[in-house]
Amino acid sequence: MLCSEVTLLVLVHAGIGLLDLLLDLLLHLLLLRLRHCRLELVTASVSAVLLVLLALVLILLSILVLLVFLEETALMKNMFYELASMRNIILYRNEYEESKKAPLIAFNIKNMHSEEVSAFLNSNSVAVRGGFHCSPLAHKTYGTELTGAVRVSPSRFNTKKDVKYVINLLQKIAKNTCKTELIPL
Q1: E strand or H helix at 66, and its extent?
Q2: Residue 77 lies in a domain
Q3: Helices marked H in 87-142
């Protein structure tokens, strides 16, 4: 085994998440190429360096993706517990399990259709989706087959201030202090 192969094996096992599989595949392809083509040691070293650089880039990208996921999850966890404390808000789970779920929340407001809530939020510059979300069995399970649900999920660029803005809008609707046809702020 070449010294570069040992280095690459160690690097592959330092990977994060699903990228391990990709790095393993790249490593095996490179090693097969090195063995079958009988490349010179210099060529093998250059290939190994390129593969190490690629692996490092993939690891850094996976770390960035993980950090974005954690940030989005923290925003949704905050929003979930704020919504859970409001009257007239219907959530479709009891706890926010950040390790098991994508960072999104499905909810409704009592006595309102999800598309009505969604239209109000959209008219106030909040991008949400109301209605049915490609999962009729989930809607049947939650009992939302007639009303659908409002689904909110963050983007990389959302902040705590954005979440607070949405919460304030939902508080106004849930308390019936404003009608959905009015645009506050």
Answers
A1: helix 41-84
A2: no
A3: 114-123, 136-142
What DSSP designation does 182 have? S
Give the DSSP H/E element, type plus range, for residue 51.
helix 41-84
Give the count of domains, the chain: 2
Question: Is 26 a member of any domain?
Answer: yes
Residue 116 belongs to domain spanning = 86-174
The strand pairing partners of 160, in sequence order, are none
- Is residue 158 a contact partner of residue 105, using CB atoms and an 8 Å limit? no
Q: What is the pLDDT of residue 56?
A: 81
pLDDT value of residue 54: 81
Distance between CA atoms of residues 108 and 124, nearest Å: 17
Q: Taking the model in full, what pTM does it have?
A: 0.65
> What share of the chain in percent tops pLDDT 90?
29
Half-sphere exposure of residue 157, counting CA atoms within 13 Å on the CB side? 1
Q: Bridge-partner residues for 129, per DSSP? A: 151
Residue type, 33: R
Name the token pair of 179: 């009608």
Taking the C-alpha atoms of residue 107 and residue 89, their distance in angstroms, rounded to an integer, is 7
Encoded tokens for 52: 């190490």
